[in-house]
Input
Amino acid sequence: VQLQASGGGLVQAGGSLRLSCKASGRTFSSYVMGWFRQAPGKEREFVAAISTSGATTYYADSVKGRFTISRDNARNMVYLQMKNLKPEDTAVYYCASGAQNWNAKQTARTYGFWGQGTQVTVSS
Output
């Protein structure tokens, strides 16, 4: 599985961005998908996850109510809609695939495949 993330950029606080992640391979719909982020000098942290069917989602407390994860299994795509962005959301955002254990969705090592990351910068 190869993942290609896009959609990052520079936005003012309160603005919105939508990240996209295109996955290759026929097994996309078999995997839990996740978004993680890593700010300079900090560890990679969980942002959001979505179940194989898309029916169930889960968010980090820091983004709950502002971010929405979705997926389109027919197109092998996963999205992260981000609203009301804050300067503390500034980070490189990574999409991740390959997870099959929903109970471990917040753990980076659960995911076997990672995209290259896309930079999100929120100015105050």
User: Anything to note?
Assistant: DSSP finds no helices and eleven strands in the chain. The longest strand covers residues 91-99. The radius of gyration is 13 Å.
